[in-house]
């Protein structure tokens, strides 16, 4: 009787195994097809390549890379042969403790500022890259017999030149430089004033253009004769700075000679723009 029941049960079960859908449900789901596997691999590869490309341009942890500098700066001939790098720098924000750059006018202070590159001569931009770095083709050119190209100055060093002039025109420094009569102070006072206010506004625009979004906290200090500590802004903050010394050296090594032949510059050609007044 038991054997008969077993045979009967097997006859009932066998047809059920002939349906693939039900067989799969009894055995569990099958693995992914070859097409699905290939699709997943392609997506993974594309994601990796996209991530690598973004990382190569935007990785702040490396503090270097031309992709970053091209995002935040205009094109520059410096990028052709100098790696712009960043490092963390502690600013000296002391209110009362002066460094050499803050001292009253004198030869020692002037040397310190001069070593920053505030008086560097122009360098020459090759004609082949002039337009790519923002030079108009009808701007002043070097005579072809002296190698051609376009005289130009590094803007960051011009900013330092301007800051130095503002220092020199501070009311406690002005008489000293006026008496020396060198550089900008060869001119009449009203031209010195125009020069100084030009510099003032150049620096205003630069600071607004590259506005620092860092924050300054406050410290407690104990004034003499006061019972309670008082708050005071902590100006000694940390900043991520470019490798200034490398940039300064690059510009120093490429300066035009101090003295050049009278025909060093080519006269304007027909069709070149000649301004009717200083812009």
Automatic annotation (TrEMBL):
InterPro entries: UstYa-like. It comes from the Eukaryota. GO terms for biological process: mycotoxin biosynthetic process. Residues 1-25, 269-279 have a biased composition (Basic and acidic residues). Residues 1-32, 257-279 are annotated as: Disordered. The chain crosses the membrane at residues 38-56. Pfam families: UstYa (PF11807). PANTHER family: TAT PATHWAY SIGNAL SEQUENCE, YALI0B05434P. Belongs to the ustYa family. This is Cyclochlorotine biosynthesis protein O. It comes from Pseudocercospora fuligena.
């Amino acid at each position: 009787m038991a054997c008969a029941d077993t045979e009967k049960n097997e006859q009932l079960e066998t047809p059920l195994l002939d349906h693939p859908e039900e067989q799969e449900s009894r055995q569990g789901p099958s693995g992914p097809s070859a097409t699905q596997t290939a699709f997943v691999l392609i997506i993974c590869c594309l994601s990796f390549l996209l991530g690598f490309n973004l990382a190569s341009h935007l990785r702040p942890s490396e503090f270097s890379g031309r992709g970053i500098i091209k995002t935040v700066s205009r094109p520059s001939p410096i990028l052709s042969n100098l790696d712009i790098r960043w490092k963390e720098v502690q600013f000296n924000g002391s209110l009362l403790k002066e460094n050499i750059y803050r001292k009253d006018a004198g030869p020692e202070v002037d040397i310190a500022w001069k070593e920053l590159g505030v008086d560097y001569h122009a360098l020459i931009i090759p004609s082949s890259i002039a337009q790519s770095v923002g030079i108009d083709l009808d701007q002043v050119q070097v005579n072809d017999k002296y190698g051609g190209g376009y005289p130009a100055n590094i803007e960051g060093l011009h900013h330092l030149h301007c800051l130095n002039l503002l220092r020199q025109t501070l009311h406690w420094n002005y008489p000293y430089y006026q008496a020396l009569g060198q550089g900008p102070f060869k001119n009449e006072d009203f031209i010195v004033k125009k020069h100084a206010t030009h510099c003032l506004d150049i620096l205003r625009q630069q600071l607004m253009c590259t506005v620092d979004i860092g924050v300054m906290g406050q410290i407690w200090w104990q004034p003499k004769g006061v019972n309670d500590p008082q708050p005071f802004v902590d100006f000694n903050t940390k900043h991520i700075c470019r490798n200034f010394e490398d940039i300064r050296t690059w510009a120093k090594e490429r300066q035009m000679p101090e003295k050049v032949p009278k025909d060093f510059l080519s006269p304007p050609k027909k069709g070149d723009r000649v301004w009717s007044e200083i812009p």
